[in-house]
Amino acid sequence: MNLKEKLKKSREALSRKLGIAFGKGVDEDTLEIAEEILLASDLGWELTEIVLKRFREEFKLNSESDWKRILVAVLEEFLPVHKPWTPDSKPAVTLVVGVNGAGKTTTIARLSQTIKAAGESVLMGCADTYRAAASEQLALWGQRLNIPVHTSLEGADPAAVTFDAIRKAQADNLDHVIIDTAGRLHTQKGLMDELSKVYRVAGKAMEGAPHRVLLVLDGTVGQNALPQAQQFMKFLPVTDLVVTKLDGTAKGGSVFAMARELNLPIRYIGVGEGAEDLIEFNGRTFIEAIVGGND
Ligand SMILES: Nc1nc2c(ncn2[C@@H]2O[C@H](COP(=O)(O)OP(=O)(O)OP(=O)(O)O)[C@@H](O)[C@H]2O)c(=O)[nH]1
Ligand SMILES: [Mg+2]
Known about the structure:
The protein is an alpha/beta fold. Helix content is 51%, strand content 14%. It has an eight-stranded mixed β-sheet with strand order 3-2-4-1-5-6-7-8, with helices on both faces. Helix 3 (28-40) runs antiparallel to helix 4 (45-61), helix 5 packs antiparallel against helix 12 (283-291) and helix 8 (158-171) packs parallel to helix 9.
């Protein structure tokens, strides 16, 4: 899969526009245009100011603009580096949370597929018990990918389903269990409390569980997802971020602000609806895809 192609909207909004602006030479007017472009890419104020400062410093020494190299260097410095996740329990329990429609279920299916392809076993648990369709959606993925799914009846207690799914994965000696939850707004206190309960009950089913909590953010929302993420983090200890739908937005720059502001690793990104469109996030590759190249 060509990441550059998938992130085309963000690259055009950032790199192509900067290329046009700087192509005409470098002066204060160009830098003002550059500022607008950086902000429109959703890089955020802090990062935009750092990039502009670096542009200014370099341009004083050199009238030829090497803006691409500078931008890549600043973005790489800005992105916090995190250790890769290595599960140290069996099963490794992953809880997946986020607002409605962010891409939780799709992420779980694609993540499970990757786990299976790596030769490990996985159970997908459906703690989204509000809609019968939620169980059906996950069950369908299970059939398609030939991966076991644990569901329950509509209206069941999500915490109880989580408990059962973990116990089932233990009994079946599986490597992973990934729990899907119902989408909820960070402002819905009752539903957020329910999520805290799911988290606690997972720990009762198995000590140390869940071993990671993935917060799925819709990339098309850009930096506006920040307050939403901060609310989720008040109710349960989120460990990793997933940013989906980056194929459908020009605001790809927001991942830098998210990684920095929330100080959590962006573990995966979604760049399409296909099965292969969830990829492990790699800062360098991502930066290269939205800045690099000569197009
Ligand atoms: N273009 C694009 N679409 C995506 C991506 N990830 C998910 N989607 C689509 O977004 C829609 C919602 O995805 P779901 O996985 O059902 O989202 P959810 O968070 O489980 O939704 P709820 O359970 O209703 O809260 C689906 O149509 C997905 O195909 C992505 O990376 N790119
Ligand atoms: Mg879902």
